[in-house]
């Protein structure tokens, strides 16, 4: 770990929250001792604030307005990969990464999304110091002492969980703050399971504290952690511990099932439930929203949840969200032609294929979805009678229409250009606020597929899930605050653990709760265990699409010696040709003619930064670096 000065100087730059400035006035030598800090109630509270400082914004706040893990997985393609190849995605696709300079962490730490090893260990140290001191610290009242202690435990659990997701089991357990005057030769990395048990130990300490609330209901306290977050972290991390990549050949599924069962029951008992009502029908249930061919209420509900920052009691699903908005999404991560800049995330054909038809049948055979390595030959599900390859976007899951702009869909917004004759569906039309057909076929000058133009689509699709139906420079609705944890994910965590542990009825009941909210038919009783697991994995892919889960899911479902060649090596586009009679032909092809190189075994984990790995080896005599780096 990076050596942190044990004076308080580093906190002065962090703690700039108005009332804290006076509280942290320093002595003439510019330093405060920890005894000085924890002998003052205000300074003690200010130190706790430092534990919050490294929570990342996530979403599209990765460097240069990228979605990071979303476009580094098989969910999408980043248009900046060609327009700015030296940035994160371009280097990732080209395999241009090393332990000394990795694009996922070292290009930029924008909004906390990067430099995880340094930032999270710094936060863990602050949390651990706080936990070690709060029992005897000066506080205004004993309720503050108990609540603040619980918050620090939840925060430490969160930072550990993030390190474990990104780096794997190359971490020591830090229950007590390290004294940097001591030797570290005996320091050892813990197993993945032991690290998860430590994370859950922190969560349980918080859950046992009556002063820590289940939900924040006061706007001024937005961003504080809760018991609900502790349950969500437990749910996720025991699922990760039981997964093939991390289980070390052991079977933890029954334990994962029991823990998830308890976490889900506790969340529901404390008024968490799926978002289940359209609260802004004047926006989302009008023809101007163009949310699907039939203005489906389930489509509107799903799109509203991800494009509005709702608070309790309207929103009872969100467990924890970031404190910042996602910026003007229409300009940097939507339909790029609208404002003339860039499209950002272009959903992959592989993601499109995961959306079932409205009768609940998968499009492809989930056991073997493609007959070739490049995914150009789909292996269709023979039981599906509704899907038509020549009319591929009809009769699909309502979440498809809420999440994807596809050829022939429409958007009403302020378009920054006048239409040219080559835009057959839209010509003539002036600059202005109007409805436009989103045509993605070859040769369409504004929204057509293109290999390099930044405002175009690389895949034949544009992202819609986080984009307000009419947002633009005249309807300024920035992206909603990022939902780091929500009940829908916990329900699917439970469903997966139940299915893997053999509790098939519980698994089906849970996944059907998600499907009912989405307007999809229930999974039938009687599915074999392996088939049910595949259906639940696909349900995660659809329900949690582009929420940063897929990147980690496909890794944890991989064996330690495996790779991501079946999912991440080739990303496919739908190349559409407009015929003279106005019909379309559809042909699948790779987004680019060469493979992406971020699929080999070493890409299952991030590398420990080279200087840190060298330092750890020199001190402990052991190589902690992840394989391949």
Written account of the structure:
By secondary structure, the protein is mainly alpha-helical. The protein has a domain at 1-54 and 114-212 and 607-629: Alpha Horseshoe (Serine Threonine Protein Phosphatase 5, Tetratricopeptide repeat), CATH 1.25.40. It is built from 23 helices and ten strands. Strands 1-3 form a two-stranded antiparallel ribbon. Strands 2-8 form a two-stranded antiparallel ribbon. A two-stranded antiparallel ribbon has the order 4-7. The longest helix has 26 residues, at 142-167. The chain is globular.
Give the structural class: mainly alpha
CATH top level class name of one domain? Mainly Alpha
Which fold name is given in CATH as the topology of one domain? Serine Threonine Protein Phosphatase 5, Tetratricopeptide repeat
Multimeric status of the protein: single chain
The proportion of residues forming helix, as a percent range, comes to 25-40%
Strand content: 5-15%
In DSSP terms, counting alpha (H) and pi (I) runs of 4 or more, how many helices? Answer: 23
Taken from the alpha-carbon principal axes, the silhouette is: globular
Task: Considering the chains and any ligands shown, give keywords for the structure.
two-stranded antiparallel ribbon; Serine Threonine Protein Phosphatase 5, Tetratricopeptide repeat; mainly alpha; 629 residues; 23 helices
